[in-house]
């Protein structure tokens, strides 16, 4: 199948006109691809670059000047050589500011090619790639922890996807979640390229003409392969039965996340050791450590004693826990609104894989952390039921 890319008109420059913009972590890009040809220019942060260079001259220049005066006096103490460290840091800051000011990036896409030209103080990258080698438009999110006096947040990205990471082109970047999926689908339509969803090598493509269709409609048109045999035995640990006209799937507990549990136990050990053996540390640290340990233990018990349930009906997919004190409220998604079902992560850099059910309005993840065999069976099962 040949792949066409139709890109938009020349987009206004990405630039930063002040220190506040330079220091902001909200770096937004939104290339207009509504008409052909497309050209996008990213200019260097000139104000920020000049600010860094002036600061570098003060930071490194003043101590260096003092060092030279002491050196010329002929009576300099050895400690004065430490002033040279300020000079070296100043040189680094000056070069960094100069690089920030002169960096220039140009992206051009026409009927046949995608071109990239980026000049910096230290490098010049130029390449041109046939647009037929791009597989589609991919969207993903990343969780960011934030920083001091700033809460965590999510970044939203859309890129022109190529097997070679160096040839991928970032089309959209934002911290605003509003209408992100609609934005992603618009890029796919405007570029006349498949929309790619999934994780790693498990990307699933939807044609641009099928973006508004549910998986039920796509299956009816023969555009989705539904490979689910209800007579086949479920994976080990999975229990499936019919209840009130719905297929009720009881999932096994997911393996404990070694990273999260390791970090928790590390704090327990450190706080306990400090509270018991450090002379000046308050004994209350032992109580805090015990609290963290009990919390971790309760999460493990809850994970095993309150199994996750997937109830698949004709009208909706319900996901909840079957706790000893009663079923939790859980979450659900309407089956006729589901546009994509795939195995992947909710955020590219956070969490474990699960079965993602995605619509224009919401997305839920089933069976997070379960083995690939179980997730693939669950994906096929969900598709098999909701597309009947």
How does this structure look, described?
It is a single chain. The chain has helices at about 20-25, 45-75, 85-100, 180-190, 215-220, 260-275, 285-305, 370-385; strands at about 30, 40-45, 105-110, 115-120, 125-130, 135-145, 155-160, 170-175, 195, 205, 240-245, 245-250, 310, 315-325, 325, 330-335, 340-345, 355-360, 365. It has about 400 residues and is of the alpha+beta class. α2 (about 45-75) runs antiparallel to α3 and α6 (about 260-275) runs antiparallel to α7. The protein is flat and about 95 Å long. Mean pLDDT is about 85; it is low at about 1-15 and about 15-25.
Quick summary of this structure?
This protein is an alpha+beta fold and 388 residues long. The chain has helices at residues 19-23, 46-73, 83-102, 180-191, 215-220, 258-277, 284-305, 372-386; strands at 29-30, 38-43, 104-109, 113-119, 124-130, 136-144, 153-161, 169-174, 195-197, 204-206, 239-243, 246-250, 308-312, 316-323, 326-327, 331-334, 340-344, 354-358, 363-366.
Instruction: Give the helix level as a range of percent.
Output: 25-40%
Rg for CA atoms = 28 Å
What shape does the CA trace take? Answer: flat
**Assembly state here?**
single chain
**Lateral strand order in the biggest sheet:** 1-8-7-6-9-10
Could you list the spans in which at least 5 consecutive residues all have pLDDT below 50?
1-13, 15-27
* Overall strand count: 19
The first-to-last residue Cα distance is 29 Å
């Amino acid at each position: 199948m040949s792949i066409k890319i139709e890109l938009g008109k020349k987009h206004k420059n990405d630039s930063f006109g002040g220190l506040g913009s330079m220091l902001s972590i909200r770096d937004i890009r939104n290339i207009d691809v509504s008409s052909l040809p497309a050209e996008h220019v990213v200019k260097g942060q000139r104000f920020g670059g000049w600010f860094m260079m002036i600061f570098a001259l003060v930071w490194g220049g003043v101590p260096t000047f003092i060092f030279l005066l002491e050196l010329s006096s002929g009576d300099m103490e050895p400690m004065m050589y430490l002033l040279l460290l300020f000079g070296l840091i100043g040189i680094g800051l000056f070069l960094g500011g100069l690089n920030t000011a002169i960096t220039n990036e140009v992206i051009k896409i026409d009927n046949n090619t995608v071109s990239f030209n980026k000049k910096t103080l230290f490098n010049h990258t130029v390449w041109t790639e046939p647009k037929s080698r791009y597989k589609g438009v991919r969207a993903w999110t990343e969780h960011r922890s934030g920083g001091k006096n700033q809460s965590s947040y999510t970044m939203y990205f859309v890129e022109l996807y190529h097997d070679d990471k160096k040839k991928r082109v970032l089309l959209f970047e934002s911290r605003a979640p509003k209408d992100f999926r609609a934005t992603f689908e618009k890029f796919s339509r405007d570029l006349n390229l498949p929309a790619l969803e999934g994780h790693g090598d498990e990307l699933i493509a939807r044609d641009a003409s099928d973006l508004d269709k549910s998986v039920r409609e796509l299956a009816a048109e023969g555009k989705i392969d539904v490979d689910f045999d209800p007579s086949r035995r479920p994976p080990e640990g999975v229990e499936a039965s019919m209840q009130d006209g719905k297929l009720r799937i009881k999932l096994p507990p997911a393996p404990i996340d070694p990273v999260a549990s390791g970090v928790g136990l590390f704090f327990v050990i450190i706080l306990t050791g400090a509270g018991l053996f450090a002379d000046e540390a308050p004994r209350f640290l032992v109580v805090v450590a015990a609290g963290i340990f009990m919390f971790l233990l309760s999460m493990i018990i809850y994970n095993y004693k309150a199994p996750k349930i997937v109830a698949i009906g004709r009208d909706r997919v319900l996901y909840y826990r079957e706790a000893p004190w009663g079923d939790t409220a859980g979450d659900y998604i309407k089956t006729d609104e589901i546009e994509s079902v795939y195995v992947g992560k909710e955020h590219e850099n956070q969490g474990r894989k699960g079965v993602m059910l995605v619509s224009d309005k919401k997305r839920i993840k089933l069976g997070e952390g379960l083995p690939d065999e179980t997730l693939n069976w669950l994906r096929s099962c969900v598709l098999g039921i909701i597309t009947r």
